[in-house]
Please model this.
Amino acid sequence: MADKLIIFDTTLRDGEQSPGASMTKDEKIRIARQLERMKVDVIEAGFAAASDGDFESIKAISAIIKDSVVCSLSRANDRDIARAAEALAPASRKRIHTFIATSALHMEKKLRMTPDQVFEQAKLAVRYARKFTDDIEFSPEDGSRSDVDFLCRIIEAVIKEGATTINFADTVGYGVPELYGSMLRTLRERIPNSDKAIWSVHCHNDLGMAVANSLAGVMIGGARQIECTINGLGERAGNTALEEVVMAVRTRRDFFNLELGIDISQIVPASKLVSQITGFAVQPNKAVVGANAFAHASGIHQDGVLKARDTYEIMRAEDVGWSANKIVLGKLSGRNAFKARLEELGIALESETEINAAFMRFKELADRKVDIFDEDIIALVSDEQQSHENEYYRFVSLAQHSETGEKPSAKVVFSIDGKEASCAGQGNGPVDATVNAIESQAKSGAELLLFSVNAITTGTESQGEVTMRLAKSGRIVNGVGADPDIVVASAKAYLSALNKLHSKIDKLNPQL
Ligand code: KIV
Ligand code: ZN
Model:
């Protein structure tokens, strides 16, 4: 019988460490529900000791998720572990994931600890974590750059203490498939009790090899868990992309011969949800989830696919959740139809008041846009949740004028802490004028790092989804706004980013 390959998703923890990708509790809950719907085995919901926000999100996810194991990261110390255990308390199935750096460089320069101290701390951490659950994962951070003898010593000891998963981390994306895979195999061969744990791979994409390294860790090294994120989200160049490893193992089952529990029809919806919530657009040529991943432009390919699909297609778009944009609702749809569609999309609004507010927004949108697609509903709910959670700045209205040969101008009305402010500005285009107008009141002094506009669906009547990335005092945030008028969407995105800067969520980064 084929072995099972465990899919461990860390979008909500390592993915969130990507600058600007921080998510609110409600956003994390929506993603966690989608991961559960996709039948992900383990959901790393956050790093409980990083911030109160992380703690509350893990706790809420633990109470909601029933089918997947919920996991919290923790450094190898009692305080972090106790915090993780407390956040995970409501979970039906929980895992504590504790880690400590094992490379000479990290131990000496970052931790300022000797190998013996690291060894002791790792053992004590796993021993302490075992008081709260039997499901313990241990990661030697920067494992791929660590000394093999030291790794053997520390891993043998933590397995003796009760670690059930050993996660071989390629923290800085330094691995090369053959080397990474064979280093893992060496560890498994040399550590006497290695068969008492499941081995896992955790790869970063700095050299574009995260997926290849993960798969080499499975095939050469014998790992049976892959840690990954939706769309490969993550710090720097990101993590192993879930959709890529899952589809590789499934499409090439002849080679990998491994079982997966994933419902692949949920892959594209998950990708869209994460992209929409974080504001990180998916590149069109991205494998599996990119807009062009299944588009055949050349005549020869189109002809081939029409004659026999598998001439040029190794996967089917509809199997991974691509569907032609379906009109789901319209102006005449009632509250019940809207509520039912929210449920089908896995969007659980907490109260009737929230449903009513979202329904009102839907009606406003339906007055301006004839056909409403799932993507419109997802954007609308995100907008609604953003404004509920961080209401310091709130968009009210906008008028703008642009005409060939004249300098564009904009008037924006928005509220600041409940009080309405009206402002005007000019710029070299309507979006620039709008941002200048808002800044004349908000005076944030933030630096705009990214401005991007995406059509949510097809056709010129589509809503535009705008992402604005702002930086201030070392913090980077993304704001997302959607509207059929892209200037309005830009104003909403800018205000949403200002709200995130204003909320001053400070959190620890586990790698620091
Ligand atoms: O990349 C890394 O080393 C990590 C660990 C905390 C597992 O994310
Ligand atoms: Zn990582």
Notes: DSSP finds 17 helices and 18 strands in the chain. Residues 14, 171, 202, 204 surround zinc ion (ligand 2) (CB under 6 Å). The chain has three domains: 3-278, 327-385, 390-503.
